[in-house]
Design goal:
five-stranded mixed beta sheet, about 240 residues, 16 strands, four-stranded antiparallel beta sheet, mainly beta
Length: about 240
């Protein structure tokens, strides 16, 4: 019995020494260095070099060079970010004391989407309309989780909407409101005027776009547009279910 225990002890001790030896071998002072350039082979300065799975980072110098001290060999996920360039992520394998990388960043091309609205009864670019307008696309409506028009208060400047207690939304723009059933801010849904507070549909379902015009709009929208207009356009039906 004593011989069996002694044999098991020797096996266990040998395993511990093996693990310690492998750990000591994998732990070393590894230098990760490299150079970051653009598509024209010009150095990219102040680029951020991040080792995502090791919580280590560094910055390139004026010549685009970087140097990061690593503690262990192995596989890492490296990410490079720089202003004006698309971020780049790649796997690297550190299997020697020094690793030299060549990284080329490509320009990041960003262009603002054109916002087309129908605030003046025709499709126009928002930038070409001489009026104070806030336009919300269907994507923004989903991002803001807007369920009804009263929640526009948190998004649209100078607009306030409140429930007086009878499930009606009384809306004011730039302080212009009313206490009667004739609203001072008219709401249009797909071109149809909600001419009083009883016919006003407050829920925002299948919305394609919301346009809020601030200021008097009586020329195009009639007598109830003294404070402004909320123009709601719903999505067109499709053949998809």
């Amino acid at each position: 019995m004593m011989k069996i225990q002694s044999a098991w002890f020797r096996v266990l001790l040998s395993s511990v020494f093996t693990v310690l030896a492998l750990s000591a071998k994998s732990q070393s002072n590894v230098t990760l260095q490299g150079n970051v350039t653009n598509a024209d082979s010009k150095p990219v300065a102040n680029a951020t070099i991040s080792i995502l799975n090791a919580n280590i980072s560094g910055i390139t110098d004026a010549q685009g060079n970087f140097q990061i001290k690593m503690n262990y060999l192995g596989e890492y996920l490296l990410q490079v970010k720089a202003l004006g360039f698309a971020s780049q992520t790649q796997k690297i394998n550190l299997n020697q004391s020094a690793t030299n990388l060549k990284i080329v960043l490509v320009d990041e091309k960003r262009q603002l989407n054109e916002v087309v609205i129908t605030a003046q009864k025709q499709a126009e670019n928002e930038q070409n309309i001489p009026a104070s307008i806030t336009a919300l696309s269907s994507g923004l409506v989903d991002d803001y989780c807007l369920q009804n028009s009263k929640e526009l208060t948190a998004i649209v400047p100078n607009l306030y909407s409140a429930n007086p207690g009878d499930n009606r939304n009384v809306t004011s723009i730039r302080g212009i409101s009313t206490t009667s059933y004739d609203p001072a801010v008219v709401t249009y849904i797909d071109g149809v005027s909600q001419f009083n507070l009883d016919t006003y549909i407050a829920q925002l379902l299948d919305v394609e776009r919301i346009e809020v015009l601030r200021g008097p709009q009586g020329t195009l929208y009639g007598r109830n547009a003294m404070g402004g207009v909320i123009n709601i356009i719903t999505k067109e039906p499709t053949n998809q279910t």
